[in-house]
Design a protein that fits this description.
Elements (H helix, E strand, L loop, with lengths): L1 H24 L1 E10 L11 E6 L11 H9 L6 E3 L3 H17 L4 E3 L21 H10 L4 E20 L5 E20 L4 E18 L2 H7 L3 H20 L2 E10 L5 H10 L3 H9 L7 H17 L3 H14 L3 H21 L1
Parallel strand pairs: 2-4, 2-5
Antiparallel strand pairs: 1-8, 3-5, 5-6, 6-7
Helix pairs in contact: 3-6, 8-9, 9-10, 10-11
Length: 348
Amino acid sequence: MNTTRNKQLLYSLLFLMFLFSSCASSYKNLLIETARPSSHMLPDDINSLTLVNRGITGDFQNFEADSLQQFFYSRGFDYNSVVLDSMAADTTLKALGELLFESGRYDVVIPEERYLDRNKAFYLMPEKLDWDEVSEMCNTFDTDALLVIERYYNKIMTKYKVYASPDGTPQYASASIDSKYDAVVKIYDPARKEIIRQLVVDDTISWQDADSSTKALFSRLPKIKDCLIQTGIQVALEIDSHLSPSWVKENRIFFLIEDGDASRINKLAEEHNWQGAYDYWLSYSNSDKKAIKSKAEFNLSLASEMLGDLDSAVEWANKSYYTKYMQQTQNYLLKLKQRQEVLERFQK
């Protein structure tokens, strides 16, 4: 009796293992990145930008790192001053160009002659650019719009303090550096003859430390020049966060139809050749076997999503759902509709 029961349990277990193995091996996981729109992403017809800097005035200079550091030391490292560093301002423009290009959303041109006259004090906003000048620059570099840093400046605030023990002898020292930045960017669209975006970024980034040794303390703190350069990069990051889409890692699956599909599709995915994957799966979408047809339609939904056509992705997923029900299709439809809702809110 026990032997019979044990055999029944063993057969049931083997069946469950076979069922799980079959289900698990019928599809493969895929890690993808999906784009999330940013708050000020440009219209779809603006795909390329010329970047220029109009914020640098005659007050700017490329400060020598050691001399600048000595200037603050000579004032007891307890000093507030606007520091107009041309390298920091140029770092913002170059870093912004790289970030916008790496987002995959924009092509970018930074001309060698990238500094425009402004005839205003550094803290004032210049007049709007002439549209003929804007059109000329965009035509010269074959871009859709002109991104201009209209204003840029830094204020550096340093503090140094020595803390004494009860008997009056120095115990330890602390130092801090605050870099306050202010930048204004405008994007000129020559076709519409409109400034389609104006971004104002202003904030403060800080460094601080303490030590019983003043020498050790200042060896760890960045130099003022380095703070200015890091501030320039921070300004670029903040501007880019408004203009470029963010990328979020998500899991997707695709169904295996033929032997070798796993390596074939992984290779196409690595090459970003989703059109090739789409064409491959399309040949199975007319299969007489519902199981194969439904899997092919599900996979075509994935390929459509990766090609940027969410409407087609939903259409193919619905076809798969009605051809042969699978829980994975229902789950995927929910993800696709959530993505559509995000995009619709952004467009509104």
